[in-house]
Amino acid sequence: MSAIKVIEPATESVMAEVPRAGVEETDAAVARAKAAFPAWRAVAPADRAKLLRDLADAIEAKREELATLEARNAGKPIGDARGEIGMVVETFRYYAGAPERLLGQTIPVAGGVDMTFREPLGVVGLIVPWNFPLTIASWKVAPALAAGNCVVLKPAELTPLTALELEVLALDAGLPEGVLNVVAGPGSVCGQRLVEHPDVAKVAFTGSTEVGRGIAAGAAGTIKRVTLELGGKSANVVFADADVEKAAAAAPWAVFDNAGQDCCARSRILVEREVLDDFLAALKPAVEGIRVGDPLDESTQMGPLISAGQRETVASFVPADAPVAIQGAAPDGPGYWFPPTVLCPVPRDDRAVREEIFGPVAVVVPFRDEAEAVALANDTIYGLSGSIWTRDGAKALRVARAVETGVLSINSNSSVRVSTPFGGFKQSGYGRELGPHALDAYTEVKTVYYATGG
Length: 454
Ligand code: NDP
Description:
Blueprint: E1 3-8, E2 13-19, H1 23-42, H2 45-61, H3 63-74, H4 78-96, E3 106-109, E4 112-120, E5 123-127, H5 133-146, E6 150-154, H6 161-172, E7 180-182, H7 187-196, E8 202-206, H8 209-219, E9 225-229, E10 235-238, H9 244-255, E11 268-272, H10 276-288, H11 308-315, E12 324-327, E13 341-343, H12 351-354, E14 361-367, H13 370-378, E15 386-389, H14 393-402, E16 409-410, E17 429-430, E18 443-451
Parallel strand pairs: 5-6, 5-8, 6-7, 8-9, 10-11, 10-15, 11-14, 13-14, 15-16
Antiparallel strand pairs: 1-2, 3-4, 4-18, 9-17, 12-13
Helix pairs in contact: 1-7, 2-4, 3-4, 4-5, 9-10
Bound molecules: NADPH dihydro-nicotinamide-adenine-dinucleotide phosphate.
Residues 127-131, 154, 156-157, 186-188, 191-192, 195, 206-208, 211, 214-215, 229-231, 263, 313, 356, 358 line the site of NADPH dihydro-nicotinamide-adenine-dinucleotide phosphate.
């Protein structure tokens, strides 16, 4: 096995080396999961619930350590990393309620009773990205385990550390050997093997639309169940009748959070033309005031990008002649830094308006009226997230129903919660994570008819 050199993006130095898994290690992890499955699905619901609660407690006890690891490895501000590990704990606690609530139905039929059961799928392969490493892993691992599946988790090679810690914590918390397995290795090797492996019943993936497309195609070979959480180019729609100052003050955090490396980033800010100048005037100090720097400094609000490659991709959206309307500051020296940047005016067919940038670059695009706002919001292959700012309640609901996207917020940019479903329309993917809906993605409905005679 060669080693993965894990880089700290704020310093460009190696912070750890871990063995790189390949096909052999992936096959071994699937075999361990398959062997563990019969006993794990047979664990009494209340006992499985307790094991998940114990795992949540174990993660909580290590919260600061895990947050520091995530902050250093993913380059995110320590305060954000603490919040994310808090969400991981909450996610395991939420799904600890599930084993005892996986209810079926009885359906009236002639000559007997028809009942449904929600059966686990078996071994599930979970492939996660580098932007929210442990958080996104928990959105998949917790409901998968709660439903009685065994898991092979493949973290991104750039950020494997917290997933490897989770594997250890699960054993310490009492989960049986083989129930949760982590393979840290390249997506094109370990990820692809999970997609093709005949003993893997389902793959849940978060990442780029391009890789997601390949996973959907590869999974067809074995008719695997697939859920895909992919890219986004979400709209933040600000109407003239909104609290424009509030919308402008909040807008930077809807796109520059996690240095813009967020599939929910509201990177297209659509503003009703008559308040465009007011909006930009209020946006300017909010963007220029963002403190970009060392992720471990408590006052930092935005860290570096994940890699040199990601910085290069992001920079390609801001060429020398780009219409930069507002730009914040970023440190010099080592680290994959990029300053928060707002482009305006931008032609509607510009790459920066159409493609997912996955970095701290937003475009501001004016619109004429409600119909044009909806048309612009929907003029994208994606449909993951979005916001609507207006004081007109009926308009807010009309627009919310008309925008083709999975998760929306009104007069807020907050839309991801442990207890509510999350997922995309169009090429942002299919299937839902979080909330009660995630359990549908990790169970198969079985219908049993019991003839009672007569
Ligand atoms: P990828 O989609 O390549 O990576 C996501 C995960 O998929 C990683 O674990 C990766 O492994 C794995 N993977 C890669 N190739 C395959 C494959 N052929 N089969 C199975 N698994 C695979 O994202 P990138 O890291 O390359 O980021 C590129 C762009 O994707 C970003 O700029 C952004 O636009 C988008 N993205 C979107 C995310 C989201 O949250 N929706 C998250 C991350 C990226 P490994 O990296 O170890 O090779």
